[in-house]
Amino acid sequence: MITKDSFNVTLDLGVHMDFTIRTMDISDYDEVYDLWTTIHGFAMRSIDDSKEGVKRFLDRNPGLSVVAVADGKIVGSILVGHDGRHGCFYHVCVHENYRKNGIGRAMATSAMVRLKSEGITKIQLVAFTDNQLGNSFWQAEQWVERKDLNVYDFTLNDENIIAFNK
Fold first, then answer.
1. Which of the ends of the chain has fewer CB neighbours closer than 10 A, N or C?
2. How would you write the chain as a 3-class SS string?
3. Are 89 and 123 in contact (CB under 8 A)?
4. What is the pLDDT of residues 95-104, one digit of tens each?
């Protein structure tokens, strides 16, 4: 059973993989940030993804963001928030050595349960166009790519610089 707090998962996909999905806390920041820096094509913003920026996000969306823990370390994360109407997933990632073990699906499921408990009925996420791995994952999970809208950004702080991992 999946609860809002955490759950353990054991999958048999030819190899035994134990992992736990639990609520992300600001004390996880350093390990999560280190994970983010290993993900090819991952983009981070200098202010929003700083420890202070992530703490502000977690404080505004308590109990929603998740991490996956395997082998005693954080191997996946999703920042999860909502505006009272739509939920949103940010920075969804699984360490490349732990992919194809159901971790991404388990994190997304846990995050969806958490949002549903808040009364949220629709979730959105952004996958960069050239992120073939991410786009393939979300399509396989039955998420629908929207073709009927455009996404626009307006920068309020030019110091919040975005940088992509190579």
1. N
2. CCCCCEEEEEEECCCEEEEEEEECCHHHHHHHHHHHHHCCCCEEECCCCCHHHHHHHHHHCCCCCEEEEECCEEEEEEEEEECCCCEEEEEEEECHHHCCCCHHHHHHHHHHHHHHHCCCCCEEECCCCCCHHHHHHHHHCCCCCCCCCCCCCCCCCCCCCEEECC
3. yes
4. 999 999 999 9
